[in-house]
């Protein structure tokens, strides 16, 4: 089947990686340049992560803020991130004002602030750099794909198979189908993430002394939550954000969304460049 996926710019409830450009390529160029600059300035990707700390627990974060050097470095990083990345999060403030306290309690991801989005954008890139070798060497590598990327114009034929739900390739205009083909080319097993427990899979594999690697695609708030869980279990995770947040959690219904396929392939290639 010939794949004809269309990648037109989309607006999200709080963010969009297009920011007026025809593709989200400019976002990735910016985020790479920022990660390069901060890595040089602070010595390593790990050092930058230890300053920004969005992927760590709040207790540790509090300790960090008592140290004035970290406070200063954080101020410097945030100033730069705000200047470069605000164009991608223009809808966030209005959305936060529209939320009720009940919404905020119901789902903490909804109240992600603009500053947090900017830190998550940077940290996903840094974690990808840190994890790529371990991910490549993992005994089993799976990808968890969001069901909101399926072709919404037809009935999806995907079905449960093994760890979770698997695409059956019924549509040529479906990002999941295109991702499926691409991930298999790089020997990563693709699943539409519905109910599979990666914690259970990780624990089962650990008993056999095997390492699980996870490649995640999700909206920024969801990606942060998933990659944070992976860090907790020491699972090498790589992540790519959806171009915008447009699923029912954010918009009340599902709207067509996209992911930058070139960047997905670049990341899979970067992972292989280690060898
Ligand atoms: S191509 Fe796969 S994910 Fe897309 S609609 Fe068909 S079965 Fe579902």
Describe this structure in words.
With 275 residues, the protein is of the alpha/beta class. The chain has one domain. The chain is built from 12 helices and 6 strands. Helix 10 (220-232) links the parallel strand 5 and strand 6. Helix 1 (25-42) packs across helix 2 (45-52), helix 4 (68-85) crosses helix 7 (114-137) and helix 7 (114-137) crosses helix 10. Iron/sulfur cluster (SF4) binds next to helix 8. Iron/sulfur cluster (SF4) binds at residues 150-151, 154, 156-158, 167-171, 174, 176-177.
Question: What is the helix content?
Answer: 40-55%
Unreliably modeled segments: none
Order of strands, main sheet, comes to 4-1-5-6
Number of helices: 12
Q: What ions, cofactors and ligands are bound?
A: iron/sulfur cluster
The whole-number mean of residue pLDDT values reads 92
Proportion of β residues? 5-15%
Biggest pleated-sheet summary: 4 strands, parallel
Report the span from N to C terminus.
32 Å
What count of domains describes the coordinates?
A: 1
Keywords:
275 residues, alpha/beta, two-stranded antiparallel sheet, globular, single chain, four-stranded parallel beta sheet, binds iron/sulfur cluster
């Amino acid at each position: 089947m010939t794949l004809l996926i269309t990648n037109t710019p989309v607006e999200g409830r709080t963010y969009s990686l297009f920011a007026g450009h025809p593709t989200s390529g400019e976002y990735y160029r910016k985020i790479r340049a920022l990660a390069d600059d901060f890595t040089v300035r602070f010595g390593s990707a790990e050092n930058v992560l230890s300053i920004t700390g969005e992927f760590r627990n709040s207790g540790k974060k509090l300790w960090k803020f008592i140290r004035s050097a970290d406070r200063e470095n954080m101020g410097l990083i945030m100033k730069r991130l705000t200047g470069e990345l605000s164009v991608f999060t223009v809808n966030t403030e209005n959305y936060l004002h529209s939320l009720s306290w009940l919404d905020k309690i119901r789902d903490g991801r909804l109240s992600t602030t603009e500053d947090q989005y900017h830190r998550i954008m940077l940290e996903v890139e840094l974690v990808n750099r840190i994890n790529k070798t371990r991910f490549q060497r993992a005994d089993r590598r799976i990808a968890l794909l969001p069901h909101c990327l399926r072709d919404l114009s037809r009935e999806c034929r995907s079905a449960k198979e093994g760890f979770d739900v698997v695409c059956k390739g019924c549509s040529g205009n479906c990002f999941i189908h295109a991702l499926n083909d691409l991930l298999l080319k790089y020997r990563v097993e693709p699943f539409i993430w519905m109910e599979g427990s990666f914690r259970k899979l990780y624990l089962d594999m650990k008993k056999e002394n095997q390492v699980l690697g996870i490649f995640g695609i999700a909206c920024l708030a969801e990606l942060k939550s998933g990659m944070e869980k992976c860090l907790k279990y020491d699972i090498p995770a790589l992540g790519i954000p959806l171009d915008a947040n447009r699923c029912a959690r954010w918009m009340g219904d599902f709207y067509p969304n996209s992911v930058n396929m070139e960047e997905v392939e670049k990341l899979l290639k970067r992972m292989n460049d280690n060898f």
